[in-house]
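Inputs:
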Amino acid sequence: GAGVSQSPSNKVTEKGKDVELRCDPISGHTALYWYRQSLGQGLEFLIYFQGNSAPDKSGLPSDRFSAERTGGSVSTLTIQRTQQEDSAVYLCASSLNGGVDTQYFGPGTRLTVL
Amino acid sequence: KQEVTQIPAALSVPEGENLVLNCSFTDSAIYNLQWFRQDPGKGLTSLLLIQSSQREQTSGRLNASLDKSSGRSTLYIAASQPGDSATYLCAVATFGGSTLGRLYFGRGTQLTVWP
């Protein structure tokens, strides 16, 4: 079956612009996670959804970052007033119910802020 | 806060060698530990997942062990091949907080297997 998909695969934007990154999880997966991989850094957690609610937003680096999930499926990560330090690969993962279930990752969106 | 460390950061070996990649973590209150593979410009592929109650998992030429009490895991790759060249990431899913299964990642071991 289809895996986790993300769009766009690449995004180049100018400093100060807003961007939206999309994640389509595996059908039926209730848990959805966003991570960020910056050059020279490890993968860092951003936000977790269980269904449509986000009980853990602790990883969002600033109030310029927000995310939502609708219909228990598609999620959008929005970055407002982008900065050069936001340049990274943004990865989305989903799992059946969270917790002990395997997380399946999408191919990521590479964001470059000029 | 959970911290995950991977050693070595990079490894270059000739084809056919058996390899051991190491991962350590600071907080033993984990759900599970996963090993991932990441190819350049690609997402993560899950290789093996070890639940906290298990000691090891095997898949083909890969074997991963977990010693939760000491906070260590190893990934053993038998008879390495050039196609094994990639970055290998270790991640632990933790208890606590409001996130079920939040993953903490190490920085990875970049493996190059040359013919």
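The radius of gyration of chain B is 14 Å. Flag for discussion at group meeting.
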